[in-house]
Amino acid sequence: MSKFRIAVHITPRKGLLDPQGNAVRDALRTLGFNSVKDVHVGRYIIVETDAYDALTAEDAVSDMCAKLLANPVTEDFEIESAVPA
Amino acid sequence: MSKFRIAVHITPRKGLLDPQGNAVRDALRTLGFNSVKDVHVGRYIIVETDAYDALTAEDAVSDMCAKLLANPVTEDFEIESAVPA
Prior knowledge:
Two copies of one chain form a homodimer.
Chain A: E1 2-12, H1 19-30, E2 36-51, H2 54-69, E3 75-79, E4 83-84
């Protein structure tokens, strides 16, 4: 068993309302950043897990996303390649 | 002026408590993912902004991070290269 580090990007699904992103966009404009057109706020999760190889680690993290980390109705997730930790 | 898309990763600073990451780690173990050693939860923010060139866009986003997006005491941020949007 080796230790792997896998990063996950979770973003609000396109086309759905993103109230947090809109709030941040408005706050940035209030601060004077008037060129800001749009903001999307997602989550960035780093999982360190033991696995026999990188592929097994990525599969496990994909399963974690489906079961807990991401909301499959409103969010998309993207898993980066596992790197030895 | 062109439109650029810049992604930002904001992560809890190493060495500081990460209660959200610990909660997610414990929840994953409760769900049967016993190989999980550690979890860090950060934010992933995508900013779409108008700028004259990519460097100006990246500088503006760095300024936004320092002023609003990240907490400079407890968080680190990393800005990806601007890409035309």
